[in-house]
Amino acid sequence: ILGLNLGWVYLFMGIVIGSAVIPLWNMMTWKKASGPGAVIAAWSGLVLAVATWLIACTIQSGSITIDNLGKNEAMLSGNLVAILSSGLIHFVISMMKPQDFDFETLDSNIKLVEDDNSGLTAEDKDPEMLAASEKWITTRGWILTIILVVIWPLLSIPAGKFSKDYFAFWVLLSVAWGFGAAITITFLPIMESSGELGTVISGMFGFSPKADNKDFVAKDDADFDEGA
Fold first, then answer.
1. Which DSSP category does 128 fall into?
2. Distance (Å, rounded) from C-alpha 98 to C-alpha 91?
3. Which residue of 1, 13, 100, 121 has the smallest Cβ count within 10 Å?
4. Each residue of 92-117: pLDDT tens digit?
5. What's the rounded Cα separation, in Å, for the pair 8 and 184?
6. Are 114 and 46 in contact (CB under 8 A)?
7. How far apart are CA 22 and CA 88, in angstroms?
8. What is the maximum alpha-carbon separation in the chain?
9. Residue 118 — pLDDT band, cuts 50, 70, 90?
10. pLDDT of residue 165
11. What are the start-end ranges of the H helices in the chain?
């Protein structure tokens, strides 16, 4: 009815929800992050983003219409203001009134709904291992972010206006990336859970579980009996 395409809606989502990204990230990773500041930053960023979007549309096209609002320049302006302004506002408020949250309290205050540690070993709960895993994830997350946000767009600049063949090559890379990610997130969990899956499949066909999986089976049987 409104004549909106998927690209228009997708970019508009960035304007509407983009202002919550950095405040939420700060709340999960930064001990000084202010809770009230996150709320203020998210709503303030939304207002600034919508205002910037409308103003940019008016400056570029002279009038506000669905088509004009969907132009790249107007959408880009709104999205950038949504993300950056909220991050700056939250940073300033948090520095003025830091919350100084102790993340260690999460271990003692967050309880499992069911005390089910199936598949978890003492090594999986080792604080040093968890800290090393966090460092591993953070480092590679930043590397991937820099590649996708900075390096990848910069590589397209020398080409200038894409030829048909160059654009086809660019699309091929994107498709290969997507299929690679899909294969990874599909098969890697299967590989990591191969022991438990083998136990379940063996049980379905009447075979005895392997020695390595006996504890897993015994724990499940105990949980079942307790629930019954």
1. H
2. 9
3. 1
4. 999 999 988 887 787 777 776 766 66
5. 30
6. no
7. 9
8. 75
9. low
10. 87
11. 6-17, 21-29, 35-61, 66-69, 72-96, 105-109, 127-146, 152-156, 164-192, 194-204, 214-227
